[in-house]
Amino acid sequence: MWQPYQDQGVKVWGLHQGENPPEIEDFIEQTGVTFPIITDDGYTLDKVAYPAGVGYPYPRDVIVGKDLTIRAIRNSFNPSEIEALIEELLAE
Description:
Layout: E1 14-16, H1 21-31, E2 37-39, H2 46-49, E3 61-64, E4 70-74, H3 79-91
Parallel strand pairs: 1-2
Antiparallel strand pairs: 3-4
Protein backbone atom coordinates (compact mmCIF):
# COMPACT_ATOMS: atom_id res chain seq x y z
CA MET A 1 0.00 0.00 0.00
CA TRP A 2 2.99 2.32 0.36
CA GLN A 3 4.07 2.02 -3.27
CA PRO A 4 1.66 4.65 -4.67
CA TYR A 5 3.31 7.14 -2.33
CA GLN A 6 6.96 6.25 -2.83
CA ASP A 7 7.48 8.99 -5.44
CA GLN A 8 6.42 11.45 -2.72
CA GLY A 9 9.12 10.22 -0.37
CA VAL A 10 7.20 7.61 1.63
CA LYS A 11 9.46 4.80 2.75
CA VAL A 12 8.73 1.52 4.52
CA TRP A 13 11.13 -0.69 6.44
CA GLY A 14 10.47 -3.99 8.11
CA LEU A 15 12.16 -4.72 11.40
CA HIS A 16 13.04 -8.11 12.77
CA GLN A 17 14.62 -8.94 16.06
CA GLY A 18 16.27 -12.26 16.71
CA GLU A 19 14.84 -14.33 13.87
CA ASN A 20 17.16 -16.54 11.87
CA PRO A 21 18.09 -15.27 8.39
CA PRO A 22 16.40 -18.27 6.69
CA GLU A 23 13.14 -17.39 8.51
CA ILE A 24 13.34 -13.82 7.21
CA GLU A 25 14.09 -15.04 3.69
CA ASP A 26 11.05 -17.37 3.88
CA PHE A 27 8.89 -14.48 5.12
CA ILE A 28 9.99 -12.25 2.24
CA GLU A 29 9.37 -15.03 -0.28
CA GLN A 30 5.94 -15.93 1.14
CA THR A 31 4.67 -12.36 1.49
CA GLY A 32 6.37 -10.75 -1.50
CA VAL A 33 7.39 -7.67 0.49
CA THR A 34 9.33 -5.16 -1.57
CA PHE A 35 10.73 -3.01 1.23
CA PRO A 36 14.01 -3.48 3.10
CA ILE A 37 14.07 -5.61 6.23
CA ILE A 38 16.26 -4.21 9.00
CA THR A 39 17.93 -6.45 11.57
CA ASP A 40 17.88 -5.29 15.19
CA ASP A 41 19.30 -8.27 17.06
CA GLY A 42 20.40 -5.96 19.87
CA TYR A 43 16.78 -4.85 20.42
CA THR A 44 17.91 -1.21 20.42
CA LEU A 45 14.66 0.02 18.88
CA ASP A 46 12.43 -1.47 21.59
CA LYS A 47 12.29 1.75 23.59
CA VAL A 48 11.12 3.70 20.54
CA ALA A 49 8.80 1.18 18.90
CA TYR A 50 7.42 -0.41 22.07
CA PRO A 51 6.88 2.32 24.67
CA ALA A 52 5.14 1.36 27.91
CA GLY A 53 1.36 1.43 27.83
CA VAL A 54 0.93 0.96 24.08
CA GLY A 55 0.03 -2.72 24.30
CA TYR A 56 1.36 -5.95 22.91
CA PRO A 57 4.16 -5.26 20.43
CA TYR A 58 3.01 -7.33 17.46
CA PRO A 59 2.01 -6.24 14.92
CA ARG A 60 3.38 -2.76 15.30
CA ASP A 61 3.33 0.11 12.82
CA VAL A 62 5.36 3.19 13.67
CA ILE A 63 4.60 6.16 11.43
CA VAL A 64 7.32 8.82 11.24
CA GLY A 65 6.71 12.26 9.78
CA LYS A 66 8.87 14.30 7.41
CA ASP A 67 10.44 15.93 10.44
CA LEU A 68 11.54 12.46 11.62
CA THR A 69 9.33 12.52 14.72
CA ILE A 70 7.07 9.60 15.56
CA ARG A 71 3.56 10.64 14.59
CA ALA A 72 1.65 7.45 15.37
CA ILE A 73 2.10 3.95 16.76
CA ARG A 74 -0.49 1.33 15.88
CA ASN A 75 -0.91 -2.18 17.28
CA SER A 76 -3.18 -3.36 14.52
CA PHE A 77 -2.88 -3.16 10.77
CA ASN A 78 -5.72 -1.08 9.35
CA PRO A 79 -4.84 -0.16 5.74
CA SER A 80 -7.45 2.58 5.34
CA GLU A 81 -6.40 4.22 8.61
CA ILE A 82 -2.72 4.13 7.67
CA GLU A 83 -3.42 5.42 4.17
CA ALA A 84 -5.41 8.35 5.58
CA LEU A 85 -2.55 9.15 7.95
CA ILE A 86 0.02 8.98 5.12
CA GLU A 87 -2.08 11.38 3.06
CA GLU A 88 -2.47 13.73 6.03
CA LEU A 89 1.27 13.76 6.68
CA LEU A 90 2.11 14.28 3.00
CA ALA A 91 -0.20 17.33 2.98
CA GLU A 92 1.77 19.01 5.77
